[in-house]
Amino acid sequence: LERTFSIIKPDATRRNLTGAINATIEKAGLRIVAQKRILLTRAQAETFYGVHKERPFFGELVDFMISEPIVVQVLEGEDAVAKYREVMGATNPANAAEGTIRKEFALSVGENSAHGSDSLENAQIEIAQFFAGNEIVG
Ligand code: GTP
Ligand code: MG
């Protein structure tokens, strides 16, 4: 089984959509093996999205991610990385498929409700940024 890292973003926690998003995750056959609600620091957000630091939307992205609490999670399942990307849908909700988290819940390309790791390597890096080994119970 594979593990991926997920964030329920501030636009979703603000609208009380944590449970609805978790239901979508679980219906897709992914198991939530670690979860906590936290407020990101600016430094954490800048590190987490460091690959985007030259992009014009970087400042806006960091401001958004620290604006309200997020829920960080580890999801486990067969092909978890690719499967969760599918369950989330396209980055821009306008392009997201029916039934995906972003189609159902996202407000815009920026406020798009969910993050999921884009590779197994990044999943391991991202999980280690937020969870100690003994906080993940598979
Ligand atoms: P993540 O799972 O959050 O990494 O999304 P992604 O992999 O589908 O997209 P990407 O890594 O390219 O972008 C990271 C995040 O930056 C997106 O999820 C959006 O929240 C935000 N973002 C991307 N493009 C734009 C944009 O054009 N404008 C704004 N405001 N935010 C953007
Ligand atoms: Mg990404």
UniProtKB/TrEMBL annotation:
Gene3D superfamilies registered for this protein in UniProt: Nucleoside diphosphate kinase-like domain
NCBIfam families reported for this sequence: PRK00668.1 (NF001908)
Gene: ndk
Biological process per Gene Ontology, one example term: CTP biosynthetic process
One GO CC term, this protein: cytoplasm
Localization per Swiss-Prot or TrEMBL: Cytoplasm
Entry keyword Cell cycle: no
Nucleoside diphosphate kinase-like domain residues: 1-138
Domain of life: Bacteria
Subunit text: Homotetramer.
Pfam families membership: NDK
Catalytic activity: a ribonucleoside 5'-diphosphate + ATP = a ribonucleoside 5'-triphosphate + ADP; a 2'-deoxyribonucleoside 5'-diphosphate + ATP = a 2'-deoxyribonucleoside 5'-triphosphate + ADP
The protein's name in its UniProt record: Nucleoside diphosphate kinase
Active-site residues, record numbering mapped to chain: 115
GO MF assignments: ATP binding; metal ion binding; nucleoside diphosphate kinase activity
Organism field: Ancylobacter rudongensis
